[in-house]
């Protein structure tokens, strides 16, 4: 449980104002000002509330360019909590991805991952590689059941290697939890099998550890071998199989900004290379684009993220939101994942055909209905892949309360009550890099009134 020490009043524009804002935003909620949003479930990335301990650490931040004390605190926290002694800081997760994937991926390489997060996909591509998703069967099925649906399909990844040649595989990547597959967890056994595959291919095992603490919580709930283990023990066991991992401090670092790459002890050359790339793209290797105070706050956040009481509250909130939505008749992805509830937009809006973006239509309709901001992660965000039409409701950490979740469930329920009136959306302009188009494309409704002919 938490007590509020600081509050921020939310003012909500009325419905006609929201309609105007939506049209001005090109039916892309990334263009909507945050002040016009009542409950912001766009992302759980850097949007959480820091603790008093983190604020205290922030005020003590050391802003020395080289060798700052705050960097030392971050190193110590990563070592204690995650078991890696060598880190290269970066301004956020994608900065860390740029530093790492640019160093290990070459032209013509192929990178299997349980599912590439969008920035990971873009960085592998940018480095000349081809990202290939290898989720387990059922990972993308909203009605599947399973304890570890986030797992890498190790045999599928092995087939990718056989097809392209093991020399073209610089790394096997495992993303924990599997963000793009509805935040489903990855088992320790699966990471062990991925390690074995990487050894067989003479490739590295890289873990995208952004949500390592949530993943460890699911492991402690679901893996009978881990029932007596602490969250830290599970974390260190799972990450211990990796040669390197990438971290966004904006997720389970419980910070508002920051990230890093961690490198295993044996990887001297890689560590040296990453530090050089960090200097070029992020900053000197003892700050990497972060202020000292941000490193200090993240150091505390990493320790808080593995407290069981925090994780019970965190995962409990996400489950609560899922249950409220279900009670309002909204079809959600089951089982509920770690950081977000995913709505099956194809089932929610059956009248909107796939090429008219049911997910993005639902996102816009929910904003209009209740000033709720969510994000589409289906055919609009991922035009070249065969994804289900999911809308993600990501829950910022330690920020919202039950009344917020009730408002969200009410708004989605009301949209679904009038679902047959919505015709969908069309893209008007989009950027060249299709893999990131949901950040900046503009759309317009097929029907001028956007389903409000009434
Ligand atoms: C958020 C995220 C990233 C990128 O981190 P940013 O801090 O947003 O740049 C990479 N991978 C996964 C799985 C993430 O969730």
Write a brief structural summary.
With 454 residues, this protein is an alpha/beta fold. It is 39% helix and 13% strand. It has two domains: 15-36 and 308-445, Aspartate Aminotransferase, domain 1 (Alpha-Beta Complex); 52-305, Aspartate Aminotransferase, domain 2 (3-Layer(aba) Sandwich), CATH 3.40.640.
Explain this structure.
The protein is an alpha/beta fold and 454 residues long. It folds into two domains: 15-36 and 308-445, Aspartate Aminotransferase, domain 1 (Alpha-Beta Complex); 52-305, Aspartate Aminotransferase, domain 2. It is built from 15 helices and 14 strands. The chain has helices spanning 15-24, 52-59, 69-82, 93-104, 118-126, 154-164, 188-201, 212-222, 231-239, 268-281, 292-305, 308-327, 345-348, 358-370, 402-417, and strands spanning 39-40, 86-90, 110-113, 130-133, 171-175, 204-208, 244-248, 259-263, 340-344, 372-373, 375-376, 390-394, 425-429, 442-445. The strands form five sheets. Strands 2-8-7-6-5 form a five-stranded mixed beta sheet, sandwiched between helices. The chain has a three-stranded antiparallel beta sheet with strand order 9-12-11. Helix 2 runs antiparallel to helix 11 (292-305). The structure holds pyridoxal-5'-phosphate (PLP). The site of pyridoxal-5'-phosphate (PLP) has 15 residues, from helix 4 and helix 5.
């Amino acid at each position: 449980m938490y007590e509020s020490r600081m509050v921020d009043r939310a003012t909500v524009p009325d419905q006609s104002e929201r309609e105007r804002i939506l049209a001005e935003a090109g039916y892309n909620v990334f263009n909507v000002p945050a002040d016009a949003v009542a409950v912001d479930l766009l992302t759980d990335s850097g949007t959480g509330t820091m603790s008093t301990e983190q604020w205290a650490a922030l005020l003590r931040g050391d802003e020395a360019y080289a060798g700052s004390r705050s960097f030392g605190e971050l190193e110590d926290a990563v070592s204690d909590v995650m078991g890696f002694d060598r880190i290269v800081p970066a301004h956020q997760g994608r900065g860390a991805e740029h530093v790492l994937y640019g160093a290990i991926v070459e032209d013509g390489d192929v990178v299997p991952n349980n599912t590439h997060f969008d920035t990971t996909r873009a960085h592998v591509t940018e480095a000349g590689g081809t990202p290939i998703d290898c989720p387990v069967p059922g990972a993308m099925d909203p009605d599947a059941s399973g304890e570890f649906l986030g797992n890498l399909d190790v045999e599928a990844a092995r087939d990718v290697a056989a097809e392209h040649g093991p020399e073209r595989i610089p790394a096997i990547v495992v993303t924990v939890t599997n963000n793009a597959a509805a935040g489903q967890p990855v088992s320790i056994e699966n990471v062990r099998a991925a390690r074995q595959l990487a050894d067989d291919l003479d490739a590295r095992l890289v873990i995208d550890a952004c949500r390592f603490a949530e993943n460890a919580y699911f492991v402690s709930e679901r893996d009978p071998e881990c029932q007596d283990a602490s969250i830290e023990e599970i974390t260190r066991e799972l990450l211990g199989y990796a040669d390197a991992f990438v971290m966004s401090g904006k997720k389970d670092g419980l910070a508002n900004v920051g990230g890093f790459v961690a490198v295993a002890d044996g990887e001297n050359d890689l560590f040296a290379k990453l530090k050089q790339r960090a200097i070029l793209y992020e900053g000197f290797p003892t700050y990497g684009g972060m202020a000292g105070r941000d490193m200090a706050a993240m150091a505390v956040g990493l320790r808080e993220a593995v407290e069981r009481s925090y994780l019970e509250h965190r995962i409990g909130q996400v489950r609560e939101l899922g249950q409220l939505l279900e009670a309002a008749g909204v079809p959600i992805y089951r089982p509920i994942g770690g950081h977000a509830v995913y709505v099956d937009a194809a089932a929610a809006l059956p009248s909107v055909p796939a090429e008219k973006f049911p997910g993005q239509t639902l996102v816009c309709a929910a904003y209009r209905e209740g000033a709720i901001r969510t994000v589409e992660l289906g055919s609009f965000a991922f035009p070249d892949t065969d994804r289900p039409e999911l809308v993600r409701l990501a829950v910022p950490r330690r920020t919202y309360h039950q009344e917020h979740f009730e408002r969200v469930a009410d708004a989605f329920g009301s949209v679904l009550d009038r679902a047959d009136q919505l015709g969908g959306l069309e893209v008007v302009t989009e950027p060249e890099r299709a893999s990131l188009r949901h950040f900046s494309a503009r759309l317009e409704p097929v029907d001028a009134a956007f389903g409000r002919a009434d």
